[in-house]
Amino acid sequence: MTGHDQHDEDGYTGPAKLLLGDSELDVEVELRGHFQPIDGYYHWYGRVRADERVSEAAAGKKQPVEIHTPQGKARGELSDPDPWDRYRITGTSTPPFQVPTTLDQVAG
């Protein structure tokens, strides 16, 4: 295999607001993403820092969510928690963070 197996990833780490059911929760997230040329979509994903309120609202199940960061907002899905009670969050298309669109933004 060649070096094409690695993705150039964009991302965001910091505070976010998670809209989950009737709850609006202030959380900390670590998000990453990349454009997938095979399907033509941008895929973003990450983890929500362990938070008792998120665990209670999600109840250990997959849930549709909306996430807001200072850089944007997006709809996604919260999935099962890991052993450290951090929920995985994923989405496709426009991410809730800024993505460089020119080489100047990448180098800057």
Automatic annotation (TrEMBL):
Residue spans of biased composition, Basic and acidic residues class: 74-88
- From start to end residue, where is composition biased (Polar residues)? 90-108
Pfam families found in the cross-reference section: DUF4873
Instruction: Name the domain of life.
Output: Bacteria
Give the start-end ranges of region Disordered: 56-108
UniProt xrefs under InterPro entries: DUF4873
Which positions fall inside the DUF4873 domain?
9-99
Name of the protein described by the UniProt record = DUF4873 domain-containing protein
Which species? Saccharomonospora marina XMU15
